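Changelog note: in this version the structure field was regenerated for every chain. One regenerated record is shown below for reference.
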Amino acid sequence: MPFEPRHLVLIPTYNTGRRLAQTVREVLDVWPDVWVVVDGSTDGSDTAMEPLAAAHAGLRILRRDTNGGKGAAVASAVRTGLAEGFTHALVFDADGQHPTEHIVPFIECSLGSPDAMILGQPQFGPEAPWERIWGRKLSIALAHLETLGRTIADPLFGFRVYPLRALERAFAETRGARRYDFDPEIAVRLCWQGVEAINVPAPCRYLSKADGGVSHFHYVRDNGRMAALHVRLLLELLVRWPDVRRLRHRHAAPTARESVAPTT
């Protein structure tokens, strides 16, 4: 039986407030299969999803009793998605940072290379906090070191399409990647599996609180987690070095494949 890719848009959310319903509506305008994973929210934002779910057969709401983090929310949906015949998931943040107009082009890119992960390469506007932009430069350099090349253009931007089987294997080999460490750790581990990375430029916007922007990032706590993550990955790289180097030579390219930015 021929392989037929089937994509869903996966939106993890925790106390996103009024922005959640707007984001979900915008996504449903461009893609029919949308799963919202409510990660222990306590602000009631998920109740606005119920009328939308009644009107859209492809909208599904998955609820977790306690907050476990973005990665935990994604992991909880992976097995269910596979069981229901989905092969890929485009992970989309609920806070309005990601561009809905790029969903279809990213999925089309994935359809052309179904074994690859499609990684968004953020294009920041003038409203982006400078400390976020400069701080991610270190994360990019560490990801390049951990993959022995420039495979991952940006390890922190969460707008991505993942092959679900490979993603399931990556989750199975670590107890991490459940909170803010999800995006960088999973990208590195998928590279270690030999999953090709295709980097695609996409705009990233930072909404003000007045516009419904919400962030749960804690600079001290979560930067500490990031530091611990990279120490752990670098130590694991020492063990994996021969295999990672062999994969690096197999791809035999100085950078991962880059796709042309989608037109809008």
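Spot check on this record: The CA atoms of residues 21 and 48 lie 6 Å apart. Strands lie at 7-13, 34-39, 59-64, 88-91, 117-124, 160-163, 197-204, 257-258.
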